[in-house]
Amino acid sequence: MPYAAISYRVKPGHDEEIAEIFANFKRVKRPELHDVEGQESGKLLGTAVFIDHDVVVRVIHYSGDFADIARKMAAESGVHTLESKLAPYLAEQRDTTTSEGFGEYFRNATMRCISQLSVDTLQGAKQPTGV
Questions:
Q1: DSSP code per residue over 43-101
Q2: 1-10: burial string, b at 16+ Cβ within 10 Å, e else
Q3: Under a CB-based contact definition with an 8 Å cutoff, are residues 33 and 44 in contact?
Q4: Residues 60-109: pLDDT tens digits?
């Protein structure tokens, strides 16, 4: 299952305030992703958020098409609440109030992946059977 990372710059010295914003984030109600036709295309499997000085990185574990994640997140009210609370701490403001604006930010903030390794990528690894 693939991973993606979204990064953004924040004003240094606000690690605890930003940590609190993410600690109170309400997870999406349903993990399913849908394509532009509304067909189920994958799932959000998990996320993690990291901060170091002036950089925040959100790692997303998912199945399916990455483009469908932005569409889902843009429609989630909890994401918009988080974005409005985070805005005062951003080094560069961004418009995430519309689906188009959120999608543009999401595409521009996606980090280049240089490696993804998992148990599935081990050559000759036995795949687990039903438990």
A1: EEEEEEEEEETTEEEEEEEEES-THHHHHHHHT-HHHHHHHHHHGGGBSS----SSHHH
A2: eebbebebeb
A3: yes
A4: 999 998 889 888 888 888 888 888 999 999 998 888 887 788 888 888 89
Tokens matching residue 6: 């979204």
Phi and psi, residue 56, nearest 5°: -115, 135
Is residue 75 within 8 Å of residue 34, measured between CB atoms?
no
Residue type at 80 in one-letter notation: H
Spell out the SS3 assignment of 27-42: CCCCCEEECCCCCEEE
Tokens 């002036």 found at:
54
The domain made up of 3-113 has a fold known as Alpha-Beta Plaits (3.30.70)
- Give the H or E element holding residue 105: helix 99-109
Is pTM beyond 0.85 here?
A: no
**Two tokens, residue 5:** 């990372």
Domain extents for the chain? 3-113
Choose among 23, 27, 57: nearest CA to 44: 27
